[in-house]
Write a structure and sequence with these properties.
Helix content: 25-40%
CATH superfamily of the largest domain: ATPase, nucleotide binding domain
Strand content: 15-25%
CATH class of the largest domain: Alpha Beta
Order of helices and strands: EEEHEEEEHEHEEEHHHHEHHHEH
Distance between the termini: 23 Å
Number of domains: 2
Number of strands: 13
CATH architecture of the largest domain: 2-Layer Sandwich
Radius of gyration: 19 Å
């Protein structure tokens, strides 16, 4: 008999929700919505509820066949109580997502970090399948990571281990959404690249990215890719800078954690192969010779579905 779970990947710009068959990891159906964090946390919760309802309407699966709803959120998590403690990219703090969703559907709800769920997805069905010693790094609105040792995710004393985006790369550097200064995320995320490009455009620099950018719209990973393909100097320079910082952060992880494998994923990695390849090359060059000679890199295999597939397995608490 088939078993299903709902996986929700709650990100800074989009909410991806999917119905997943647990035996195979197959995504039966999915719904994507814009996060629109400016409308407040309760609106985000309502969007998640609406997305789950749409899944039930689109498929022949009803909630009695669903074992759980798993949610991965971009932020620090209290897993035991289902609370999103702090998520600067979502502007959510001390939000009890679990109870709000569970009271509506009367289905068990589990909460995890967004990169944690993507890591579970890649470990079970993706690039890290069969590997029990690796690090996942995902680059999108922010930069996040998860560490797997002996097949288990290392969560740390407070459950917040793996925050590579908040290692300090410049003591007096750029402000970060977390409130600190000089974090890797402020230099290597898609948001950081977007800010650098926008700042240069305001100063009068020319870029072909203007051919794709509509008034009031944000710069996307796809626009960045197209601009690099057209050899745009401004965009290429901003991406190169981000790659320099990200590769330094990954090299530090390689030296410190010494994993067998680094899996890179997220919207920017997925869309911009130039960024992915340059980051790998630079990370190897910056790492100590011995771990650099053994480290393997892979791109996340499940793409956008890494998170929703992993979230469907949050009920397996030992993962």
């Amino acid at each position: 008999m088939k078993s299903y779970a709902v996986g929700i990947d709650l990100g800074g710009t989009k909410i991806l929700t999917a119905l997943v068959e647990r035996q195979t990891g197959e995504v039966i159906a999915s719904v994507k919505k814009k996060t629109k964090k400016e409308k407040g946390p309760l609106n985000i919760v309502q969007k998640m509820k609406d997305a789950v309802e749409e899944l039930f309407e689109e498929t022949s699966v009803n909630k009695e066949q669903v074992s759980s709803i798993g949610i991965g959120a971009a932020g620090q998590i209290d897993r035991a109580n289902g609370i999103l403690i702090g998520a600067p990219n979502l502007d959510c703090y001390d939000l009890n997502i679990r109870d709000l969703i569970m009271s509506h559907f009367e289905i068990p709800v589990y909460l995890g970090n967004d990169v944690e769920i993507a890591t579970i997805g890649e470990m079970k069905f993706g690039a890290a399948k069969g590997c029990d010693d690796f690090v996942c790094v995902f680059v999108g609105t922010g930069v996040g990571s998860a560490i797997v040792k002996n097949g288990e995710i290392i969560r740390g004393a407070t459950g917040t281990a793996g925050e590579i985006g908040h290692i300090i790369v410049d003591l007096n550097g750029r402000p970060c959404a977390c409130g600190a200064h000089g974090c890797l995320e402020a230099y290597a995320s898609r948001s950081a690249i977007e800010k650098r490009i926008e700042g240069a455009l305001k100063k009068g620099r020319h870029s072909v990215i203007l051919d794709y950018l509509e008034p009031g719209k944000s710069i996307t990973s796809g626009m960045i890719r197209k601009s690099i393909e057209r050899e745009d100097e401004l965009v290429t320079a901003c991406v190169d800078e981000a790659s320099d910082y990200l590769s330094g952060g990954i090299a530090s992880i390689i030296n410190f954690v010494n994993p067998k494998l680094v899996v890179l994923g997220g919207g920017l990695i997925e869309a911009v192969d130039y960024f992915y390849k340059n980051t790998i090359k630079k990370a190897k060059a910056k790492s100590l010779p011995v771990p650099a000679s053994k480290i393997e890199f892979k791109k996340a295999a499940l793409g956008d579905f890494s998170g929703v597939v992993g979230a469907a397995f949050l009920e397996d608490r030992k993962l």
